[in-house]
């Protein structure tokens, strides 16, 4: 789904494809999107495997694009980097993990799936997922996330859990990227801490790392101004580089 550029900004340059995370929809980028230059496209990831999600992203636009993925969205993006690196003009990874799943993660996801099949979707989201999303208690943010998760729903959640289990180590894909990379982390992200992002940035050929103070995992909700500024400035820098080349 294409989104209009902010009023007063020219719609120029390649599209930016925004990809949400687990239990997120396009609302995950709602506070960031209006401040981004140029055309923006929201891609959905609903396939039950990472490869299928990567193909959904690649089908969202034709030709070269700039990728920006949040959490699971970035993980699907790493698969895009494996399959079609020539289409990537820039890669932004937010609140994510490039490592293969651990045995503990696989067991936790299987448990979430069993409970969701048993009709416990709401309690899984509220008791297991929500506490990992934010740096601190904020009732308004909690309500916003829960509403978004309910829109996504249990069927899509189960597909996302299945996809998580098909992940593989993505550091080689990161190292193989020739395009500029932006890696963004929340300083207080308990799910994907800053160390994960330092590992990603250290593997890339041309990466910038930004750690947002006092932000947790869903930093596009918790620190939207800082997230929009970092991503917007980086995108403008890409435009300048393309004009100079």
Describe this structure in words.
- The chain is α/β, with parallel strands linked by helices.
- The chain has 9 helices and 7 strands; from the N terminus they run βββαβαβααααβαβαα.
- It has helices at 50-59, 72-83, 103-117, 121-129, 139-164, 171-176, 194-203, 219-222, 224-244; strands spanning 2-3, 16-19, 40-42, 65-70, 88-94, 181-186, 207-212.
- The chain has a 7-stranded mixed sheet, sandwiched between helices.
- β6, α7 and β7 (207-212) form a beta-alpha-beta unit.
- The longest helix is centred in the middle third of the chain and has 26 residues, at 139-164.
- It is globular and about 50 Å long.
- Residues 1-11 have low confidence and may be disordered.
Q: Which features would summarize this protein structure in a list?
A:
245 residues, disordered N terminus, globular, seven-stranded mixed β-sheet, alpha/beta, 9 helices
Low-pLDDT regions: 1-11
Give the % helix. 40-55%
User: From N to C, what is the helix and strand string?
Assistant: EEEHEHEHHHHEHEHH
Tell me about the largest β-sheet.
7 strands, mixed
Given the helix and strand composition, which structural class is it? alpha/beta
**Strand tally:** 7
What overall form do the CA principal axes indicate? globular
**What is the first-to-last residue Cα distance?**
30 Å
Widest sheet: strand ordering: 1-3-2-4-5-6-7
- Mean pLDDT, nearest integer? 93
Rg, rounded, reads: 17 Å
